Amino acid sequence: MTQGTSLSGNTNSQGIALLLVATIIFAAQDAVTKQLTQLLPVGQIVFVRFLAFAVMAAVIVRVRMKVSVRAALKSQVPGQQIVRCLMMCAEISLFTFGLRYIGVAEMHAIFSCFPLFIVALSVPMLGESVGWRRWLAVSIGFLGTLIIIRPGTGVFDLAALMPLACAVIYAFYNLMTRRVSRHDRFETSLLYFGVVGTAASALPAFLYWETPTQQGVLLLAAVTVFSITAHLMLIKALELAEANVLQPFNYLILVWAMIMGWAFYDEVLDNLAIAGAALVVASGVYIGLREARSATPG
Description:
The protein is mostly helical. The chain is built from 13 helices and no strands.
């Protein structure tokens, strides 16, 4: 084994370790957010999250790019950047709202199908070619989603359509992010995310602003700290390891969500929902591995 290969293996392991911790923190963030939705308006929660993210992004820009925020906001495709960020603002708002009515585990079980939408939408949006194996994986994954939701049965709940809508919006956001990354630096996209999200969520936040109780302040602080910490870990993980190496480990957030949903809210997915989630995860992992193989030169 060469030294370069050994170093690459070490950094991949470090990146995976950071991602594992980040997924635990993200799951904890959603568990706390579920409680917070019972105390404060969704718009207020989303605004505070985006404001904290904007501050973090500004610090990263200053440290990495060593330029002013105004300079970093100079984008070659500002319109696409704004649309991309508005999509994510809508997704986070809907996901937060959904947590008021749906369990943490069920939200993540249904939302986990977003890579399937990315594959399906990458054809019309990016002109990518998708082989029959990945289309088969997408079909199996969607079957798993239907098993979780179970439309047309007594178990079906209209609220389950919220995480499904989140998955579609998040897929569009990912594809838009790929598109703008061809023109703008990562730091510029990061800063746009924070600034546009803060601006978009400001009006509904102040229209329905409620003075938080001491418990509300503590929970808001916890969500903010969790969000910033997890995103910083995710950014560092992507620096240490390639995205296709990390991708399968992202699904561990579903495991943590199930554990936290059970521990804090007595949530238990039934056997059919677990089977459906397993199909979704297996399909997503397979698609990730296929994409990684096709991206490997030689």
